[in-house]
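Final paragraph of the annual report: two paired records, presented back to back.
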Amino acid sequence: MMRRRDVGRVGTLAALLLLAATAPGAAATARANDYPTAERADYVLGCMAANGNTREALLKCSCAIDEIASLMPFAQYEQAETALSMQAGGGVGGRTALFRDPPEIKQAIEQLHRSQAEANLKCFE
């Protein structure tokens, strides 16, 4: 027969095991959901414009941003998007190297391109 103290320990142990088992999945879910709605909408609108503004494009583009969000944290996505925007616009006074050369910027842009490629394979095929 279990004593009251033992029941509490078993409950605590069960809770810890459940937490440990769900932590990796919870972290991935939290990361996938850290993109602000406005950023997701902006991506989908741009993607739709590039793909014909159809209902099918809406479904594929929303799938794509969800896939990208599952592959990279928003902070890295934002860094890459900002750098690409600055490169396209000529940077600050034409100094695009500020947004191209630092290793962390290169890495963020490469990760964004890989994530977009994976999203295209998953959502547009």
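The closing record of the year follows.
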Amino acid sequence: MKEQCFESALRRDGFAVDRRILPPGTVVPEHAHPFDVRALVLNGEITLTFNGAEHAFREGDIFVMPAGHPHAEAVGEAGVDYLVGRRTANAPPNDESRTP
């Protein structure tokens, strides 16, 4: 149920939603995205390094990475499966109450 609520909130806030599964030991060197990221870890573990510190995220944890923020990624020994939302930087959330 948490996954469905998280996905609904992502869509409401203007995020495109995807599911990613990364194999154990995947390492992505420092980089930045041109979009905001909000993700929910479904299984496994991913460690993000930013602002000089490592932050581990496991099942049930949510992480947020603003557009342009440098970070590195390292996947744990069980791999990682996560639901991720991507949104163009500074994009307004969807407002279904607006009329065209």
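The chain is about 10% helix and 55% strand. This concludes the annual technical report; the extension proposal builds directly on these records.
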